[in-house]
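ARCHIVE CARD
Drawer: 12
Card no.: 0347
Subject: one protein chain, sequence and derived structure
Cross-reference: see card 0346
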Amino acid sequence: TVFKNLPTPIARAKKLQEYILEEFSEEKQKEKMYEAITGEKNIKVNISDLPKISILTSVYNGDEFIKPFLEDITSQSLFKEKCELILINANSPGNEEEVIKEYMDKYPENIIYKKLDNDPGIYACWNIAAKMATGEFLTNANLDDRKSPTFMEELAKELFINKNIDVVYADNLLTNVANEKFENNTSTTKYPSEDFSLDAMLRGNPPHCMPVWRKSLHDKFGYFEESFKPVS
């Protein structure tokens, strides 16, 4: 019967093949596994959906770090599409400006630079940058920080999806070797992030040095306390 009516089972087999390839694709199986493990639906967000992210950076005595820092930041997966880097030069004695202008020529739409006549401290610089920022999300970046290439994309997606969350952060790797990249580093120490709580904040400040937060927080609570000193 099959032989006599061969076109019919062939047509059915092709439809079944299409169904299997569609319903049991690798991508769909990953989605089902994600939902089974986390209990949540894996929501996909395109870079084009994300709001602008403003990166706040204080520049002071950073000649050793400035070029690798700018190369690292501009290598972020969404830098050209969604980021503005605001560099506040705190009257640095270094020659960072020469390198900064080189990168401003490369990314004229993404890099904003302001040089001050005196050094008001790192948190005052962050406040100046935060008030200049046009992004809905903010993050700070120090000259000796290096980030995963998808750092801002992944954390921004979490804020975008979870409207009830205002700050997101991740673990940090610590290294004593200057200018190592995230993808190739000698770190043997991970900063022990905890789930957020008041007690955790008092113990070790789990958001630590590289969170991403909503700019609207500053409207509710003000800006950084400028009298505080950074602690290494």
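Annotation on reverse: The beta strands are 53-59, 83-89, 111-115, 137-140, 167-168, 172-174, 189-191, 212-214. The CA atoms of residues 5 and 176 lie 74 Å apart.
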